[in-house]
Design goal:
274 residues, alpha/beta, five-stranded mixed sheet, two-stranded parallel sheet, 9 strands, globular
């Protein structure tokens, strides 16, 4: 069934089906609702409405993608990336390299070797979970009430064993450090979104989890699975935002200015993230 039902994009893909082999660019070209776009909704509904204007690009994002590809899609590293002759990717030499290689992502000197070494360490510990599973598969589901195409692209999905895993390169070096940022980075929201979208598409999911890859030595990866309590919390986050989107569509009323309370006031009154 084509995505045209949702008036999304001229590219046509089957709905409620696991799609393999779709490139990252092709997936992102489909104008739907993904977990990362809830951050725009949180800023304002207008920001989500004009989401095509707010594309995320930064050096740290490129480094994270490089580590991600080295672990999941190592054949793409040489195809998609090229190293700058300097450690920084914003030097004159790097800029010239970008001009000469417009289709490549420029990363700092030594980053590709570092990413491959991280991938080797991840494979030592979690290879049995990664190797047999599907990597970077795409799902699309048309949601009638919102008129949006829900989409997600889990890093790792094992249909036979019923689990989703997400790779997170992080400054956190242990479980406790990662738990401190998990909710503020909306990892709970993203995981709940993956879980629910695959269920809507008719695919089995029992467990959602993370493989965390520390950026600092000794780079020993560690993992989590999502508890039912955290799943519900992540789900309530995105459901609240979708409800606000529905109200915005109906009334046109948007919260462009949010109240700024002190940290002490927010703590005393149990006010969480805006």
């Amino acid at each position: 069934m084509p995505i045209e039902r949702g008036k999304m994009n001229s590219i046509q893909y089957a709905l409620d089906t696991m799609i393999e082999g779709l490139s990252n660019e092709e997936y992102h070209a489909v104008d739907g609702l993904s977990s990362t776009q809830f951050d725009l909704m949180r800023k304002s509904m207008a920001a989500f409405k004009y989401r095509k204007e707010f594309k995320k690009e930064c050096v740290a994002f490129d480094e994270g993608n490089l580590i991600h590809d080295a672990i999941l899609l190592p054949h793409l590293v040489e195809i998609n990336y090229i190293e700058s002759p300097t450690k920084g990717s914003d030097t004159e030499a790097a800029k010239k390299l970008k001009r000469d290689n417009p289709d490549k992502i420029i990363v700092g000197q030594g980053m590709m070797e570092n990413a491959r070494e991280l991938a080797r360490k991840v494979d030592l510990i979690y290879g049995d979970y990664i190797r047999p599973a599907s990597k970077e598969v795409s799902f699309f589901h048309y949601d009638e009430p919102t008129g949006l195409t829900f989409k997600c692209r889990p890093d790792i999905y094992d249909k036979e064993r019923g689990f989703i895993l997400d790779i997170k390169s992080s400054k956190a070096n242990n479980h406790a450090e990662f738990l401190r940022v998990l909710e503020s980075y909306d990892y709970d929201l993203s995981a709940a979104w993956y879980f629910d979208t695959l269920k809507l598409c008719g695919y089995p999911v029992d467990i959602v989890g993370w493989i965390v890859v520390p950026k600092e030595a000794p780079n020993c990866p560690f993992g989590f699975y999502m508890t039912e309590e955290l799943l519900e919390k992540g789900r309530s986050k995105y459901q609240d935002l979708i409800q606000k989107w529905m109200e915005y569509k109906e009334t046109g009323v948007d919260e462009l200015f949010k109240p700024a309370h002190s940290w002490a006031y927010r703590k005393e009154n149990y006010i969480g993230e805006i």
